[in-house]
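Figure 2 data, in text form.
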Amino acid sequence: MIIIYHNKYTISEIVSTNDGNIPININQNIVETLLYLAEIFKDEILVWCHENEKSNLNVFGIEKLFHHKKLLFSFNPSSINYFGRFVGYFEDSPYVNINKNCKYPTWQMSSEVGAISAEVLNACKNDLKAENNFDIFLNSFAKRAMAHGLFCYSQPHLLIEKSRPQEVNTSNIYELFKFTKQHYRMRWIFLLFLNLVLFEKKIPLLPFIFSLFYVKRKFNSDLLDNIPLQTKNELIEKGTIDVLIPTIGRKEYLFNVLNNLANQTYLPKNVIIIEQNPEEKSQSELDFIQNQKWPFHIKHHFTHQAGACNARNIGLSLIESEFCFLADDDVVFKNDLLDKAIQTFKATGNEVFLVACHLKSQNVIVQPPKQFPVFGAGHAFVKSSCIKNLKFNMGFEFGFGEDADFGMQLRNNGFDVLYISTSTILHLKAPMGGFRTKPILKWQNDEIQPKPSPTVMLYRLLYDTKEQISNYKSMIFIKNINKSFILNPFKYINTFKLKWNRSVYWANQLIKQ
């Protein structure tokens, strides 16, 4: 392992954990030195650390973090990251609001402390620029490579203990606009400008204009393909899988799913079926559970209480196997799905992943495993120990966002969500069962109807930064502009505010329940 100690601008010392100090040019560019060391020490882990954290660096724990080579770690002890809170004005993802108490997926890297495999840097060197600003180099690299199979994390275990607050590097407004133009679609610099005017009372006209002349940075999607994803993590002991399926009024579709499972080359131990029928005095219609012999145990629970959140929570309490497949009742998949899932756990060493879920009209493009900003409870594989104390938030019942919320609960407990495109699930989007009833929502009789949906707002209030919420407000305002805005813009704006505020009100009521 090679460690570069620096003072933000220049290198103060380079140490090899095997050979001691390495002679250096004290004025050499940090990024150039990092890339140079990667060429010389091709099989090493390269670490950087601010000299103030030298005694706090977890030297003996860093190698254990690298259970495979395609990893990039960094940690900023400060609550303020390099691009500050304004990141929320141009990115709407879970990677903005970083949980500093656990390993958390994000492209927001820091020069304070971090580590990467030399092999990764060498593979990507043709798309890397040795610029003077180390923080921008790290953030640019992570932002581009994360989409193509580099796993990037904020990792507090790089340090022995939590450090005291200290002055950290932060970007200026010119760098902010430049980074946005180089790494995002053109529209985001306009939205960033608009958000700064509306919510910060700033008019950054020059930074905006200068950013127009920068070219978007590219990244070759094949660069990391030659680095094998071979984990040292041993996640599997028993290798047993339970399948959890909530269902309501889709008897034929569910029967087909069970047949799919019965034909698997790697059979589940239990299939947990939570059947719902809100009609009084109704009974189960799933006669095939008893009338047919299945090569797995079926745990069948019938309830009159409709709702996916409640059904899944009942199912979570019935899981007993080492792994769980969270499935829908109207999906189709190949007979090697569970077998390939076990192989994915073995290969990635990651506890949570989604397989590609598509409609009949969609084609799946095969990509390397990568970090994913969404979570879907109909095509997810999870190690059961990760969800032992988790539940689907009942505030989302009959609304939107329970999947995304569950994914955030996992991330905030230190478990990343990966996307695996080599396995696929066809989602039939079956019509609703005949006895499904439309739920009565608390706000449906309001004179002012909330917009967006209170459950969507609930997710925003729970997990987004203030700036992300403001950005979302700008986006839905623009997307919903119609003739009424042209005819009477003041009335349109006032109505929009009333609907927004009503959504915030009901979202806060859902938080309390």
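Caption note: Residues 482 and 492 are 9 Å apart (CA to CA).
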